[in-house]
């Protein structure tokens, strides 16, 4: 979304390198909209989406809690003004010394998905609260997050029972239905699994309290997506269906849905060429930003960003879009070429919209000598 504030910034800011600019007012509105849609769920912002200090400070002020994946992210959140009781260490793969450091900083809520992780926490974070992540199929998501994280629901029962026996507080279950999840019903099956884990453990005398419903809330790229209200209604309906009148404490972990449409990248066309002398051959448009510069989510063309050019309205043709590095993997859109104006030429500045999430954090630290993506927050 190119807001008036972003337009004003772009008019007065010159740079020889690509950069992203994020409008905090959009972040504020997205947070308030999602909080209204799920008023009984506490928001834990997924710091990995965009850890800009200004964003963390705003969300801390608005009352958000935070989902973190490392000690460094925990320290960023604390520096932004949030207290440790508003932090979850949500990565299921943690070094034991990092768990100890987080515990020393006051963090008491941890994600697990296997007995070995439980044992690390029990050794260095006695009495901590743990929730077990269960697998989901991620159907309907443009960026699935299955396989690497989570375990089968039956195993989650064993993992949480093991945690209880080791003196940890087994508090609940988590899942993630996949990033950029366009299917509002995706939470239904996961909540059914969570309910079964709750019931099984209750029969064994362990009463869970928490369901972490993860992220997945999308931003608009080239296609319309459901509203926050649509998600809120579908998720609350699923909670009632599977938990009845005994709905547990719930948290959500939005990342993309809070900051994605708040950011815009300004980039430049470096080259427009063909690979043969055929005048009707495939056009290639090379930008000064690519997968290694922050657009890693174009991998497998999962995320298709809206692109604006100064020549919009002219006749278009399908183009392959690629980045500037000497790496053959640095191609953004080739399987499904992107329609761009035929008149687009070297030196034209373009805007890549909805790039507030997973761009600065995915940018390399100088691959091929290209500078990391510069970020401005207004």
From TrEMBL:
Gene3D superfamilies on file: Alanine racemase, Lyase, Ornithine Decarboxylase, Chain A, domain 1
Catalytic EC class: lyase
GO biological process, one term: putrescine biosynthetic process from arginine, via ornithine
All residue ranges annotated as the Orn/DAP/Arg decarboxylase 2 N-terminal domain in the record: 26-259
InterPro entries, per database record: Ala_racemase/Decarboxylase_C, De-COase2_CS, De-COase2_N, De-COase2_pyr-phos_BS, Orn/DAP/Arg_de-COase, Orn_de-COase, PLP-binding_barrel
Cofactor annotation: pyridoxal 5'-phosphate
Residues carrying N6-(pyridoxal phosphate)lysine: 48
Molecular functions (GO terms): ornithine decarboxylase activity
Reactions accelerated catalytically: L-ornithine + H(+) = putrescine + CO2
Pathway noted in the entry: Amine and polyamine biosynthesis; putrescine biosynthesis via L-ornithine pathway; putrescine from L-ornithine: step 1/1
Active site: 326 (proton donor)
Listed Pfam families: Orn_Arg_deC_N
EC number: 4.1.1.17
GO cellular component: cytoplasm
Domain of life: Bacteria
Family statement drawn from the similarity comment of this UniProt entry: Belongs to the Orn/Lys/Arg decarboxylase class-II family.
Name of the protein described by the UniProt record: ornithine decarboxylase
């Amino acid at each position: 979304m190119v807001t008036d504030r972003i337009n004003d910034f772009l008019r007065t800011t010159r740079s020889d390198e690509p950069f992203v600019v994020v409008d905090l007012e959009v972040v504020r509105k997205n947070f308030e909209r999602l909080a209204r849609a799920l008023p009984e769920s506490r928001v834990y912002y997924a710091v990995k989406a965009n850890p800009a200090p200004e964003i963390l400070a705003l969300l801390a002020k608005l009352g958000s809690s935070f989902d973190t994946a490392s000690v460094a992210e925990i320290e960023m959140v604390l520096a932004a003004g949030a207290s440790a009781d508003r932090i979850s260490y949500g990565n299921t793969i943690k070094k034991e010394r990092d768990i100890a450091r987080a515990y020393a900083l006051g963090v008491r809520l941890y994600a697990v998905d296997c007995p070995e992780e439980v044992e690390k926490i029990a050794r260095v974070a006695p009495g901590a609260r743990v929730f077990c992540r269960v697998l989901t199929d991620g159907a309907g998501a443009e960026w699935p997050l299955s396989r690497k994280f989570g375990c089968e629901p039956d195993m989650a029962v064993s993992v949480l029972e093991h945690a209880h026996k080791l003196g940890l507080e087994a508090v609940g279950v988590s899942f993630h239905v996949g990033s950029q999840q366009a299917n509002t019903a995706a939470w239904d099956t996961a909540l059914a699994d969570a309910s079964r884990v709750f019931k099984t453990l209750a029969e064994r005398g362990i009463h869970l309290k928490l369901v972490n419903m993860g992220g997945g809330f999308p931003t608009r790229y080239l296609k319309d997506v459901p509203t926050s209200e649509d998600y809120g209604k579908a998720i609350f309906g699923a909670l009632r269906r599977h938990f009845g009148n005994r709905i547990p404490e719930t948290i959500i972990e939005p990342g993309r849905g809070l900051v994605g449409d708040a950011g815009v990248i300004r980039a430049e066309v470096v080259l427009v060429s063909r690979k043969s002398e055929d005048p009707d051959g495939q056009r290639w448009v090379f930008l000064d930003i690519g997968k290694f510069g922050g657009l890693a989510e174009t991998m497998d063309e999962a995320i298709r960003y809206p692109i604006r050019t100064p020549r919009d309205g002219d006749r278009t043709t399908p183009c392959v879009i690629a980045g500037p590095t000497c790496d053959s993997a640095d191609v953004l859109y080739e399987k499904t070429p992107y329609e761009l104006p035929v008149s687009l030429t070297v030196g034209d500045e373009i805007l890549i919209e909805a790039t507030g999430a997973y761009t600065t954090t995915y940018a390399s630290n100088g691959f091929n000598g290209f500078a990391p993506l510069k970020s401005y927050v207004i």
